[in-house]
Structures
1.
Amino acid sequence: MQIGFYDPVFAAPDRAVWLDRAAQAGSTVVRMDLNWSLVAPQRPADPTNPADPTYRWANVDAAVADATARGQRVILTVWGAPPWAEGANRPTDAPIGTWMPNAKALGDFMTAAGRRYAGQVRAWQIWNEPNLSQHLGPQWRNRRMFAPVRYRQLLNASYTALKAIDPANVIVTAGTGPYGDPRPGGNRIMPVRFWRAVLCLDGEKLKPRSCPEPASFDALAHHPYGVRGPRSHARNDDDVAVPDLARLRRVERAAVRAKTVRPATRKQLWVTEVSWDSSPPDPDGVPADQHAQWLTDAMAVLEKQGVNVVTWFRLRDQPPVPNFGATNQSGLYLVTGEPKPALQAFMSVRDRLSGR
């Protein structure tokens, strides 16, 4: 099992310091954002050509180069549609970049990105938490699930584009959010229900249905944040906390058997976000020593379930601006740079996994 970090600090001006600390902690993989709207704020005239003058790659170029120079495997997560690639009539309460993204436009962009980073990036994650309306909307339309259908289109367009450039590219699904709304029509679709829809399987018995364009990917990703500790199960059967990944594995295996996924072979299982906030600094967080123990336990529980890659969410805490509730204090370092007990816990996991 490869372990590493996902932290926006890796795109910040002082990223070299934090990439060094990630490597020192034992990270071998880092997840980084590829914000489509920032790279392509205007519609390119030649969208599959990375040299189109409207593209703005400089920040991503520097982050990828700095990470790979430190021996890190880079996962690029593409998300955030530019306004010209969103659907019409986006509601005012729908976040910018989330409303009915155009699949063909994303496929063209992924062709440009794949060409740009050929030989540097081999792991590509398509979108983020698409079972939540804050990332992909609408979730429901005309009383039917819309987000899984649109997400399958986005995923397949990206898969086709990136595999055409290099068949060795690994296409990773978006990590799904861990919890959803039990009733239809809400802003969150439960992750198991979401993947059943993406993979054209119906009901608890996972009966295959007609699927003219099966989903194509190599690794299934999820974000199993826990309301409680890493050994506590989600209360609803279609939600997925840390010890519940068998619920997703069951859906994935049924899709492979039914050939409602391509290629029809067993998929890797990745966790591209997981963590808890600690106290200090967050007064509502987990006490620091318990935070370290939960990190150790979570890694063990995920490894036992056959997870291939885990990226812990945040290496460094965020400052509590505007407050602790709106920010993350889940890092291995305080915002001041002082290490927490969780740093030693992460290094101990590294040593165990590497057989040291």
2.
Amino acid sequence: MRISINNNPIETDGVSETLIEVAHRAGIDIPSLCYAKGAKHKSSCMLCAVRDCASGQLLPSCTTMPTEGMQIETDSPEIELTRTLSLELLLSDHRADCEAPCKVVCPGGLDIPAMNRLYDKDRFDEALTLLRDTLVIPATLCFICPAPCEKICRKGSINTAVPIRELKKELVSRTDLQKVAKPPQNGMSVAVIGSDPLGLSAAYRLRKLGYRVRVFEKSGDVLFPHIQTDKVDRTALKGVVELEVSVLTNMGVEFVMSDERDRLHELEELDGVIAAVCEAPSPKWLVPSAKTKQPARLVLEGCKLADALHASLSVVDGTATTVTTTFNSTFGRLSEAEVASLGTELPTQQVASGCLYCDCDKKTTCKLRLYATRYGIKSSRYGASSVFEALHRQRINGSMWFEPAKCIRCGLCVYNSDNGFTFRDRGFVMQVVLPPENVGNVKEELADLCPTGGIWKDAP
């Protein structure tokens, strides 16, 4: 038979594939959460809604079989509204964080739970690499940071907050300059004007990307002139700054003590220049757009400028990269019941860092987050109504977990497990549960089938 999808004629037998499969075969993307290729499923999320122009009906494409003469439309304001409403309804029942509050408030954007996970597995070198790749000058920032991450740490409402700053200081103390690698050069040279936190972070990131990097500083000191030292012990801070500079030097970053105005001709011949602390005499030079003076935010801005410079020097056929704001689910404060429950569970879940790991273990692969980002959702218009407690985790086996508060009740785990997951109750109060006696029947493949972080495996 012949149907059309977005005015493209397509042949299908009408028996072996549903509309979503016909569309995918034709290279037409239709989103879905309750469908997975080759798996048993039933339509529930309505994210895959399409419209048959011949009948005017909205149809779930994951379960609808094609019929002769169908004129399917997969993209229109009406369909987009249906999908957006479906996502918002699913999010209203999703009591979970994508990113942990500590990462959200960190002015430098450090993924603190990821660092803590590595720390708790005694993978200190990897934890330090993550710390330095993000904050660049972590020793200095730990010394002067007011630690907003600790103030918002959820564990503080149970007993005591995770000592994040002290953990970072411990990791920094493990720095072995002999292990600092010097990345190979890519043949291009850039300059950074100024050795403030922004300039050093830009230099670090560009050196990691393979550029020959020279940092120009007209003062006799690096970093010191650009941070407020009136409230800290200058002598103690000096040793910290020397460590930061040694790391950059060992990576191959060159420091030139000279006024950039005296070397304009030399700078113009380079592939790129970032003016961190001066007015740019050339429109080709990149300058910071943020007006912040907060050191950690300056580090983040420096990394962004470095990425922007790298993107401009790596553009293919004039194509630039579009930056999209990623959706972030958050459930706010812990309820009294959750505080009481977590307080009871903590002795059996205690790890060296004391972290609750508030973030989602599948935050980079969660389809719910992916589609919420795609459809521009900032937050659900509906109030949260989950009956499950946040951060309550049921162990399935040694490395596999079930977190009911993240479940969207798509049913994939129920339909594709033999006497494992099951539904309880019906209608709006229906829940997906895993009876304790069924735990041994659950296969690890279900973690990959789950579209959210409801079922997940510990990272290796």
3.
Amino acid sequence: MTLLRLSIQNFRNLQAVDLEPSPQVNLFFGENGSGKTSLLEAIHCLTLGRSFRSHKHKPLIRQGESAFTVFGRISSSGVQVPLGVERHLDGQSTFKANGVQVSSLAELASYLPIQVINADSFQLLEGSPKVRRQFMDWLVFHVEPQFFTTWKGVQRCLKHRNSLLRRDRIDGPELAVWDRELARLSHSLDQYRQRSIEHFKSAFLELLASFIRLPGVDISYQRGWDRERDYEDVLKTNFDRDSQQGYTHSGCHRADLRITVNGQPAAEILSRGQQKLVVCALKVAQGHVFGNLTGHQCVYLVDDLPAELDQVHRSRLVDWLERLGGQVFITGVERDALVADWQERPHLARKVFHVEQGAVKVVEDTSSAATE
């Protein structure tokens, strides 16, 4: 997948931006607050309807305006598809693909898979299981066609089961019906996750080994209940505790990825620099596996790359991104530091943009020469 055109209206401090990105490398430099990160946020909104910095849309609307609009044209398997997102202060939203309003944000997300690498990516090691579960499910969503339908079914069952658990008098037969359906769907969801994680684990460990020497690093999938027991039996055994507290304790909604070093949580063992490298390996491994399983490439949004990694490891990350062969959008404050990692790669189509006070202009374009 490739973003061929990006048009932004009234998004944060970006009043009117219209770009034709390079199909490979796009570098944005400018002072802090100039609008670099806002560009990446706008691309994220185009595919997920929201920013990677916040689920709230009102702060994204330029001050004094009533709505923001992001339009893009993507190419997938040789077919061009227009995408559009518009969100208003009053809560009204419009999401379109190919000129037709999409039925869900999940449908929108399927058109342009996005991976983000920024300071918040450290939450993969330091954050709650929910963060890692969302990370894991990005890959499962894109490679397992039935995943999202199954995931929605699990959420529906949990909602009804928890509602029954909070009643003063629990309807036993009705609860048994929801338990059976929840167990059936949870088993399917667990299988989807296991298949994806098997591919992901080997890719992650191989990439990390080429990036830095960190003996003892491992990653394991925790499905959310005892692996040796049937889930419906777990629900029956936990009934008293679940009914007392009014919610379902065990299940695939508690799944996690455990990232360890010699059996200890990686966040407690690794230095900040080492954590950066592990996080980069996690993100790139996802793109690698996605490409292998689907034959497509995801788009990478990398915010303030020079600030996150030293020159040696920036160069290795750039090597990884180049091998993936997808489109990348990378920001940084200083032009020289941002461009340096790509200067030894004249075969890549590259565009460099200067961002200043919400305005964006091309200052370097090697796209034509690189693609000749």
4.
Amino acid sequence: MTTFYNYAIRQAERLKAMGRTRTGEIYAITAKRFIEFCRNPEVTFSEIDTPFIDAYEAYLINRGVCRNTSSFYLRALRRIYNMAVADGFASQRQPFSHVYTGVDRTPKRAVTQGDISSIYRVHLPPGSPVDYARDMFMLSFCLRGMSFVDMAYLRKRDLRNGYITYCRRKTGQQLIIRWEDIMQKILRKYPPNRTQYLLPIIQYEDGTERQQYLSRLLYVNRKLKKLARIVGLPPSLSMYVARHSWASIAHQRDVPLAVICQAMGHESEQTTQIYLSQILSNRIDEANYNILQDL
């Protein structure tokens, strides 16, 4: 009889072989987390029923996992279960009918134009880890909020005739960005990469490129927390903040929504609106505050 864990890991490896590395990693992590709860690597699909999944959700919550993260694990687990149903290894008993698999809206993180200037201008020891993190943050912002994974995989040949041309790894959409002086000034701080890649993120072409990117992302985000303390910003400062802040500042400068959508490589304006929802909320709160002052 096929066990849940063996089936899930096989699917994870299949997805990785198809080039869907991130999804494969999610399946593998989901399977391992579920087996930690089960304490039995031989659990079968016939044992996975509604009370079992309800207990798993409670387990995640009791361990301090936030609701969105719990929902993330449960959605991935549900996908694996449904695949097993389609493959004939499980019967459809709807075991996820009582657990939360939605996505709660969370406050979007963005900093102001003044904050960006403070980050850029604050004196840091040249070559220090925080200085490096600041440079990666600023490059992301200057490159229209380019995601860290796209920055990591930028190749030297992508920079030609004063423009960066690349395809977003998330959507495959091609984007073209003018290479500005500030970008070149930051890049000049670092010796030329020994690999085909433009930025000092992936340093070796030995099959560990993805691990290098993920490790560097964690490293940069940790150092950005220290940078936040130095410049007096909330500790939530991260590479994601650079991307969201570019969209927010562009919107505040009356750049049309369609232009921001295209600039960031979003597949639809609805995605861009999600990025900007917090700005609109803040404007409403400010208007309400001004109204109340006249009471």
